[in-house]
Design goal:
Number of helices: 11
CATH class of the largest domain: Alpha Beta
Structural class: alpha/beta
Helix content: 40-55%
Number of domains: 2
Order of helices and strands: EHEHEHEHEHEEHEEHEEHEHHH
Radius of gyration: 18 Å
Strand order of the largest sheet: 3-2-1-4-5-6-10
Number of strands: 12
Shape: globular
Length: 293
Amino acid sequence: MRVFVTGGTGLIGTAVVAELLGNGHSVLALVRSDASARAAEAAGAEPLRGGLADLDVLRTAVARTDGVVHLAFRNDFSSPEALAASVAEETAALTTLGEELVGSDRPLVTVSGTPWVPGRASTEADPLPTDGPVGGRGRTVDAILGLAARGVRSTAVRLPRTVHHRGAGGFAGLLTETARRTGVSGYPGDGTQRWPAVHALDAAALFRLALERGPAGSAWHAVADEGDRVRDIAEVIGRRLGLPVESVPQETYGPLGPIFATDQPSSGALTRQELGWEPKQPGLLQDLENIQP
């Protein structure tokens, strides 16, 4: 299968491109810079210059490929306005990709986060949140899955709050960045809230499985660690960086503060059962030992 991949040179995208190429697929990768184009070529993919805002480029890519894996997102969490702009850009891009695929029965694999359910681990059957700081992403993913009724084999891989590789990535990565900047390895509240996690290489395997055989309209959980306590995450970060570990106000994390403070474990049991996905890489706390002081 020739696959169009957006976000193919990021932490997750690099792993997805390698997974696809290693399993007999070819890749057309959307790239925004010369450096990204060189990285895509070095990995074995064909680069296509453009960004999520270049809707005509996206239409051209769909016409040249057999399926789409969408990963790109402008991760600007500096303010509520910046985050809203990122969500709006992605919505326009995904809507364009979906409309171009209508009636083709080709796959479109998109991405979202695992939902939050009070008092228990969320499952694949739980709906995505459609309000809050990133509620717009949930509404867009729901619309894309709805294209199953219009001849698109649309599926969604729900990623946990931390997708990690060699100690970097996700919410845990943001805790590390904040710790380096402030001199404190912090956590909101009492730190007992739990975050799910998955290694990028394990997540990549699930994206491939969803592309190859995910039924139209289905959602899958790329969850390896059901829920690590945020204080435990902060303690590993603090030890690796030689910094004190303390509770900090949730405002420390800007518009993501309320999400950081929420207990949000998640289960991927159905995904393992139905798609035969089995995580094999190190868990988050073990992988954070790769953080360099």
